[in-house]
What we know:
Helix 2 runs antiparallel to helix 3. It contains four helices and 23 strands. It has helices at 2-26, 104-141, 154-179, 225-228; strands at residues 41-47, 51-65, 68-71, 77-82, 91-92, 97-101, 182-184, 189-194, 201-202, 209-213, 216-223, 245-252, 255-266, 277-284, 303-320, 329-333, 339-343, 348-349, 353-357, 368-370, 383-387, 404-406, 412-414.
Amino acid sequence: MKLAFRILAPLVIVLAAAWLAKYFVETKPEPGKFEMPPQVTKVEATRLKPQSYQIFLDTQGTIRPRTTTTLIPDVSGRIVEVSSNFREGSFFEKGETLLKIEKVNYETALVIAESSVAEAERVLQEEKIRSEQALENWRRLGKGDNPGDLVARKPQLREAEARLRAARAQVEQAKRDLERTEVKAPFDGRIVEQIVDVGQFVSSNTQLGRAFATDVMEVRLPLTNRQLSFIDLPAAGGKAEDRPDVLIRGQIGRRVEEWTGQVVRVDSSIDEASRQLFVVAEIKDPYHLRDGDVSPLLKIGMFVDALVKGETLENVFVLPRQAVRVGGEVILIDKENKIRRRKVDPVWSEEDKVVIPAGPGGLEAGDVVCLTPLAYPANGAAVIPTIDGVTPEIESPPGRPGGMGFGKGGKKGKGGKATPNPSKAEPQKS
């Protein structure tokens, strides 16, 4: 009896457990079912309006002086005096004496030349008297009215006049040499390098120093072939008002300063190394020697960025760069708030902007363009656009169970066909 109980008891327990498991599986409650509302993406958009757009060509260059010269004396001698402005980095004015050469020898040469003039004048006067006396003797002898040149001593007279002119020319040369013992500045400028100093002997081929003019600075700016199609370059001898303006930016310390200039000339050929055409812009009075401006001074060799004023595009649309997808596509939103992909051909693009022309087959005034980048935009997909900061009133898809959907204006309200939750339903009035 005990043996039979030990055998049957486990079997009964296993059968009972299996029956209970089957019962619970067959009688489990069905889970509630409801439809998920379709997901609608909210996007930012703008309505296109045609406008004009001023193009600025972005380029770079290095500041350099327009006029650079090496100072060389016209006479030889020992330097006896050097101006305080004949030092590296010093400014000087046109006509200012930069250094003086010993002038004793040239003063002596002037005295000798003046003596030669006095002697030549005496000889000329004597020849004139001899000529007159010869003519008088000819008439007294009664040999006719037409004496020859030799009789009238005309060759001797012309020789004396030529010697007088030569002596006077030597005086003028001596005066010029004496003046040139003072080396004067040929223009308003600045010293780059001082080579000689007091006590040094210099000749007519000795370099005294190097200087540059401070009236105008230049910067050579390369333009690509595409940029050249958006600018009217000045012709030779063109008017100043036809020259494109240039905004120049350079960093001095921690600040970015700006200067203005104009494109004044164009290189005669395209650079073979870079395949670009260089234009030259001028910045007048870069050291503010005339206008009294207090802005920072331009430095030779400074690397600067430049914006060259180009053409003005008319009847175009200006979009943020993120609104144009790779491949030149934009996403349009129609009246039913569904997206449509459209191919466009930008006429100009910058780091943060894309300019698209208006016209048939492209974008037109009044079109709504999506500004929000979409990873996988499908034609016909619904969106909720905020157009220029305004969200239009639209009927949204059915809401979640309980009737809590999005109605007009994005406000919560009753919508959809789901059955209300009995636990949250309002009590009926008796």
